[in-house]
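Subgroup meeting minutes
Present: P.N., E.W., G.H.
Scribe: E.W.

1. P.N. recapped why we're keeping a running log of single-chain structure predictions: easier to compare across weeks, and new members can see raw inputs and outputs side by side.
2. G.H. added today's entry (572 aa).
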Amino acid sequence: MMVLSAAERCGPVLGALLGAVLGGCGGGGPDPADLVVLNGRLVTLASPSEAEALAAAGGRIVFVGSSDGARSWIGPDTEVLDLQGRLGVPGFIEGHGHFWSVGEARLQLALDGARTWDEIVAQVAEAVAEAEPGTWILGRGWHQSKWSETPVPAVQGLPTHHGLSAVSPENPVLLGHASGHMAFANARAMELAGIDAATADPEGGEIVRDADGQPTGALRETAETLVAGLRSETLEPNYARQVVRLAGEECLAKGITSFQDAGSSFGLIDAYRQMADDGILPLRLWVMVNESNEALARRLGRYRMIDRGDGFLTVRGIKRLIDGALGSHGAWLLDPYEDMPQSTGLNTTSLDVMEETARLAREHDFQLCVHAIGDRANRETLDLFERVLAGDRTRRWRVEHAQHLHPDDVPRFAQLGVIASMQAVHCTSDGPWVPDRLGEQRSAEGAYVWRDLIESGAVVTNGTDAPVEDVDPIASFHASVTRRMANGEVFYEEQRMTREEALRSYTIDAAYAAFEEGAKGSLEVGKYADLTVLSRDIMTVPEEEIPGTRVVYTVVGGRLAYRLPSPPSPAG
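Output recorded in log:
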């Protein structure tokens, strides 16, 4: 893998762009470009819809057209990429992920491959053997619905902490669920957090307990913060830069040039701002603020940023979670769970708090971005938007996930001008167990209904919710157009996207969802020169060949940010 630093890629933007364009008007040919791309099949998502080549100067596109026309932009210092017929598309935009967590996940135990609870306990035991007593053991990615067997003993299908605690008596352990909406703690971690049989459930959360009322170690929704809160974000500069570097490497290698970060603290935004000013953010970040209403009221006005650091940092969203996740039984439903009929899930942020957040968002001209997964959560969010926006369709407020909708609420997204910020790969990853939670009828009518939303006129964007899922856009693109699960079955195929819709959801529509369609999302003169080049033509190859596609080049601001070390032939 070759990933170039942002410092190596950054340069003056508008000055060089204007100089190049004006130079081309003087009769002596244009000034040389920084980058010229030749002999490709570029899907521009603009007019014309396809091109062979482009040129970039000062971080912006200055020419789109034929290879012959692009050659006039080549000078002695111009980097030239011959695509040899490969597909080039506007740089992928991760529409909803957790950038910091993508980097930190690479420093923690990866639990997503475990197929039993015993395997996870064994991983922790190995980590404890190498750790100093008292140091935290962290991991994430487990999902009980993907295990091959139910743990023994179990409560609500979840293990108890005793086996885990036995291998880690002196080290606090916290293991995050794949959804990010539940965690599992050992006895030492619960002791440090003061969790025992007398501890009350926090609002919007649940401490799972056994028949004797003792905590099992499973902490659902807001209850996980009782332990996670003991570990505040480590923002020491060297550590922060390491995490950002690791996250950037992961994203650039998968063709992502912009990342819509679904919730960061003011402290973390301060770190991003410093890195943007220093020119070392590896890709463009669009950030939602995740802080209490009290903190927002005090500080929000100082944090609205547009295109700071030559377009590498924008902060203009606020994140709220009105419910939890379907996998943790935390999604807020209109009717009870099929497999847990005593529960309709959890409202994790009260409606009064949500109302005040909405007021602050309007006051400071921030987009309100609400995590809503269950049909009750989505309805309450749409009702809130309808009340607060009062007919104003220009704000582009967002529902993050919109995973399960009541059919009556599908048309409301377009009617209210609300973005459906969805993650197609959740559908194929979760699909095998979704009917267990919702039943067949509710799954068919309302689960991941992006076709219904698109046809109603809503803007639907795409992403992965990384590190909940792999940050790979190719996997999510494949899920969008096939809805084919790992078991080979298709999850309600009538909701599939076309390939153009899927590409748009990862590019121009994602840019629109962030008020950035004027600067990115298509290959047009004047926009950022962000480009992703693929080993296969995902717009034409058979469906089964899409997952084998590799990213050959990632270009950010006209500079090569990633190059596949040994690219396959254009046909492969």
